[in-house]
Amino acid sequence: MKVLAMMASPRIKGNSDILLDEAIKGAQTAGAVVEKIVLDKLRITPCKEIYHCLKDGTCPLRDDMTGIYDKILATDAIIIATPIFFYTVSAQLMAFISRCQAFWSRKYVLKNLDIPLKRGGFICVGATKGIRLFEGPKLTMKYFFQAINAEYKEELLIRGVDKKGEINDHPEYLTAAYELGKKLVS
Ligand SMILES: Cc1cc2nc3c(=O)[nH]c(=O)nc-3n(C[C@H](O)[C@H](O)[C@H](O)COP(=O)(O)O)c2cc1C
Questions:
Q1: For a surface tag, which of 3, 82, 84, 149 has the fewest beta carbons within 10 Å of its beta carbon?
Q2: Which domain holds residue 52?
Q3: Using CA positions, which residue lies closest to atom 15 of ligand 1?
């Protein structure tokens, strides 16, 4: 089984990154081949509303997203790990998601049913403990996963973790991330 692991925080070795690495270990233990992508290292322009994708399901923008479309088509599962920024996902992730409008057009406008079904896992970490902290990101993920034809299978939502690497003080969350990766591919 192939897994794409998307790291959406700009902070390398931060909380999302550490959690994602645990999920990757879990998936690998279960036999998956994992490719990790650090979104902040790529040049991905947000959707420009050219609407070319409505014609044939492809995006005419040429940047690092170009190679990712095929990876999404080829993967069996995708794990997204993001910090909460202003009650939503990171800007890096939002740019990537907006470019997946090409898949949305294929599926819902062109009724192209050849986007393989895959599994989706979501890891999200924020500093505060607000009861509604994950409402926005969860809705975004729900519709993103639908667009790329992924079933929203697993989630790990963590409140109250802020400083770089602070997640390491919570071994229970590391275990939960590992289990998420394992369960997603099992
Ligand atoms: C620009 C910015 C906006 C943030 N907005 C929120 C927020 O709305 N709610 C929250 O709980 N934490 C917020 N945070 C805190 C981060 O979610 C938190 O520090 C998280 O652990 C960072 O994860 P990372 O190490 O993976 O980047 C924000 C941090 C930054 C830098």
A1: 149
A2: 2-185
A3: 127
